[in-house]
Amino acid sequence: MTALSVLYSVIYQFGDNFAYLVLAALGLAVIFGMMGVINLAHGEFIMCGAYVTIICAKRGIPLPIAMLLGALAAACAGVVIERLVIRHLYNRLFDSVVATWAISLIVQQTMLLVAGPSMEGISTPFGSFAFGEYSFSTYRAVLPVVALGVLGALYWLFFKSNYGVCARATIQNANMAQCLGLRTDHLYTLTFALGAGLAGLTGALYAPTMTAVPTMGTNFIVQAFVSVVVGGANVIVGTTPAAAILAVIQTALTASYGQLFGQIGLLLTVIVVIRLMPQGLGNLFNRTR
Predict the structure, then answer these.
(1) Which of 5, 63, 200, 221 could form a disulfide with 71 if both were Cys (CB 3.0 to 4.6 A apart)?
(2) Which ranges does the record mark as transmembrane (predicted)?
(3) Rg of the chain, C-alpha, whole Å
């Protein structure tokens, strides 16, 4: 066992943890940051993306297209839920929490009745490669690059597109944006669909790595909430650096003491951040700028 192979193993684990934290949190951060809605059904949108991806891939659709269809299906589900439920609960934080929690339970039980307790997954593409004495999944090594690509696309969307200008205006002052002629209700629908679609994309990307079960969203939602709480509502200057810091903590503790201590480290970090920086790291970066 060489020092170089150990170092590469640590870097690989950091990239894997970073991708998992970022992709799991993006949809939740977008919805909370712009709409002020804590979406407890976030995990079910992830599940939707995974199930649709697996079903499409098994029917012969190429995997990248199947993943896009999974993300699109989650986005369409987000539009339906926003129009039927969420839009009636704006500025009612606790009501929206209860409503999205109820949606989560309904979807989980419905999927359990319709699809059964589990669905056979699809094989992980690209195979594996060896470095020193360790073997690594090529697909999981690619996921950090995909996560950075998604972050780059979100940066362009929010800072370079017309939608981004309107969205940021609505975030700063929704009433004033509405007075200036913006259809804030349409923006909220698009934003909720975007957040749901990002969650669906996360499920689609991780569908080849796990068995699809109705409760699979719970595997992601803890990490998603941890990243959003630590980073704050701003996706670019909040959630992203928070995911990087949390990935370092989780990787170091997991490598030294095991996976359980890695999870404990994440939760302890949340407690410290809430105590010292209630608005998250994003607010600290904004004040620094």
Answers:
(1) 200
(2) 18-41, 61-81, 93-116, 136-158, 187-208, 220-248, 260-277
(3) 19
Contact present, 67 and 205 (Cβ < 8 Å)? yes
The helix-helix angle for 218-231 and 3-35 (nearest 10°) equals 80
Give per-residue pLDDT as tens, 10-39.
888 999 999 999 999 999 988 887 788 889
Q: What string of H, E and C letters represents the secondary structure of 129-160?
A: EEECCEEEEHHHHHHHHHHHHHHHHHHHHHHH
List of residues 6+ apart from 237 with CB closer than 8 A: 281, 282, 285, 286
**Are the C-beta atoms of residues 210 and 10 closer than 8 Å to each other?**
no
CB 214 within 8 A of CB 257: no
Instruction: Dump pLDDT digits (tens) for 231-270.
Output: 876 777 778 888 888 899 988 888 888 888 888 888 888 8
Binned at pLDDT 50, 70 and 90, residue 153 comes out as very high
Distance CA 153, CA 148 (A): 9
**Element housing 128 (H / E):** strand 128-131
Strand partners, 130: 135
Residue 29's φ and ψ, nearest 5 degrees, are -65, -40
- Its pTM stands at 0.91
Residues 24 and 222: their CA atoms lie apart, in Å, by 9
